[in-house]
Design goal:
Elements lengths: L4 E5 L7 E10 L2 E4 H24 L6 E15 L4 E13 L11 E8 L2 E9 L3
Length: 127
């Protein structure tokens, strides 16, 4: 595509090129080189923002693994149908993503049996 360009000089007697303007006609409207450059800049910025959102908007999936479990007490009181237990779990939480780092102030673990909560532990981060 050819753009007819015009050179703007400083003066008639001392011709130093100051700027060059190019223009073309599209749908009956005159488009200058600055308009075309601004349009391409806006398109590039929008593409950059969309790419940034696609890459960084996904939250990382944590890998949670129970590494050790032990039960030291398991007693059922038949008078009031209460179960007494002492369950100890070692839980490892790993972030497989090298792009994201995760910092939590609080971690809450809930154990359920048949949609009934049987235990809940909350740990607060120590800084």
């Amino acid at each position: 595509m050819f753009f007819p360009c015009t050179t703007v000089y400083s003066s008639k007697y001392f011709p130093v090129p100051l700027a060059m303007t190019c223009s073309m006609t599209w749908n009956g409207k005159k488009l200058t080189s600055s308009t075309i450059l601004a349009t391409f800049t806006v398109i590039a910025l929008l593409a950059g923002v969309i790419a940034f959102l696609v890459i960084f908007s996904r939250s990382p999936r944590l890998e949670v693994t129970v590494t050790d479990a032990s039960m030291t007490q398991f007693n059922l009181n038949s008078n009031n149908n209460t179960l007494y237990y002492n369950l100890a779990l070692d839980v490892a939480i790993r972030n497989p993503s090298s792009t994201f780092s995760i910092h939590y102030k609080r971690i809450e673990v809930t154990a359920k049996f048949r949609q009934q909560r049987v235990a809940m532990v909350t740990e607060f981060a120590t800084l």
